[in-house]
Structure formats: structure tokens, C-alpha cells
């Protein structure tokens, strides 16, 4: 491949392996000053906006419902499980999710927390793969129902997934590590409050 251009437009010559046979095409990229040129950057921008909007709308619905589900199971304080009497939505969970998201977006730490969220999910995936190995042990036969689907190739796939997850986690930066630690600590504190409240309620009953 030969670069025959400069500036906003570059002509790339691709050799085909046969004498006197080449393919030339022009591609519009960026000017030397860094300004975007052509339709490709615009299409990428539109795609990114659509993707981000869809993701945010999904998170607005699922994020609050996750808090509600955890509260309903007793893993978070009952405050997050309150349902609005008229709209039948998890009102407190929606408000908390919205406020936290707004604060993170305005404070400029949203990008860091987004990375922390991805790392946290990776930790969950790693734990799920480890649980797959544990549930396959003979000790789990008497404690869990028989599996309706068994991953083929024995422990190969879970171990491979664990190795990939550990490799990715090894590249975590210090700010990302601190953000993940803070998020896990906050969740642990809320879980502790919920379990203590449940234990106190059981004692009263």
C-alpha cells in the first residue's frame, strides 16, 4: 500500500500482486490542522450519539430497576424498594439513580465511572465463570437443581474466560482501580445496612 497524498485527501494504491495491476481510491480523512473532513466523521458522530442515547435510555430504566430488585431481595435497604402509589414505579430508586448520574456527569468524573462500571461487570463475569466451575463439582449435586444446559468442553471455556478477564483486569489504571474500589465499598456498606436491618426485624418478629 502506497500513500500518494497529503492534507485532506489521500490516494491509496493497493497492489494486487500482478504486474501493472493496482487499485487506486481516495479517502477523505482530516486536514493537517485536525479539522474533520467528509461524511465519514459525521456518520461516526451520528452513530455515537444514537448509541449513547439508546444506552442512556436503557440504563435509566434498568439501573433503577436493579436497585429495586436488590432491595426487594433484601440485599439493599428497603428505601430503594419503595413503589410509587400512583405510577407503580420504584420512585426512590429512580430518583437516586438520576441524581447520582447527574452528579457524575456534571462533575466530569462520568468517564472514570463508566470505566469503573465496565471493570465491575468484568469482575461479575469472572465470578460467574468461577461459579460455573464450582457448580460442576460433586459437592454441588445435592445443593442445586440439575442444570438444564451444560457448557461443553468441560472446564475449558470457563477457565479461558477467567484467563481473559484477569488479563484485561491487569491493565487497569490507578484511577480506575480506586473508582471500582469506592463503588464496591459503597455497595458493601448498603448491603451491610440491609442485612442488619433484616436481622433486627427477624429478631423483633
Keywords:
205 residues, mainly alpha, three-stranded antiparallel β-sheet, 5 helices, 3 strands, globular
What does this structure look like?
- By secondary structure, the protein is mostly helical.
- The chain is built from five helices and three strands; from the N terminus they run E-E-E-H-H-H-H-H.
- It has helices at 39-72, 91-107, 110-135, 156-169, 174-204, and strands at 2-3, 9-15, 22-28.
- It has a three-stranded antiparallel β-sheet, with no helix packed on it.
- Strand 2 and strand 3 form a beta hairpin.
- It is globular and about 60 Å long.
- The N and C termini lie far apart (77 Å).
Helix content: 55-70%
Query: Runs with pLDDT <50, length 5+?
Result: 1-19, 21-30
How much of the sequence lies in strands comes to: 5-15%
What is the 3D shape? globular
Mean pLDDT: 75
The neighbouring-strand order within the major sheet is 1-2-3
Written as H for each helix and E for each strand, in order along the chain, the element string is EEEHHHHH
Number of strands: 3
Amino acid at each position: 500500500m502506497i500513500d500518494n497524498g497529503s492534507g485532506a485527501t489521500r490516494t491509496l494504491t493497493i497492489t494486487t500482486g500482478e504486474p501493472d495491476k493496482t487499485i487506486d481510491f481516495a479517502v477523505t480523512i482530516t486536514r493537517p490542522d485536525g479539522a474533520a473532513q467528509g461524511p465519514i466523521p459525521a456518520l461516526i458522530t451520528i452513530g455515537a450519539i444514537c448509541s449513547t442515547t439508546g444506552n442512556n435510555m436503557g440504563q435509566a430504566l434498568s439501573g433503577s430497576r436493579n436497585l429495586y430488585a436488590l432491595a426487594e431481595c433484601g440485599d439493599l435497604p428497603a428505601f430503594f424498594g419503595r413503589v410509587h402509589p400512583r405510577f407503580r414505579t420504584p420512585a426512590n430508586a429512580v430518583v437516586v439513580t438520576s441524581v447520582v448520574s447527574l452528579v457524575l456527569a456534571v462533575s466530569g468524573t462520568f468517564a472514570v465511572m463508566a470505566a469503573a462500571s465496565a471493570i465491575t461487570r468484568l469482575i461479575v463475569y469472572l465470578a460467574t465463570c468461577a461459579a460455573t466451575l464450582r457448580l460442576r463439582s460433586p459437592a454441588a449435586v445435592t445443593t442445586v437443581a440439575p442444570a438444564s444446559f451444560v457448557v461443553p468442553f468441560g472446564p475449558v471455556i470457563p477457565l479461558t474466560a477467567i484467563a481473559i478477564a484477569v488479563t484485561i483486569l491487569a491493565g487497569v489504571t490507578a484511577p480506575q482501580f480506586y473508582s471500582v474500589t469506592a463503588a464496591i465499598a459503597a455497595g458493601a456498606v448498603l448491603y451491610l445496612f440491609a442485612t442488619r436491618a433484616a436481622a433486627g426485624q427477624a429478631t423483633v418478629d
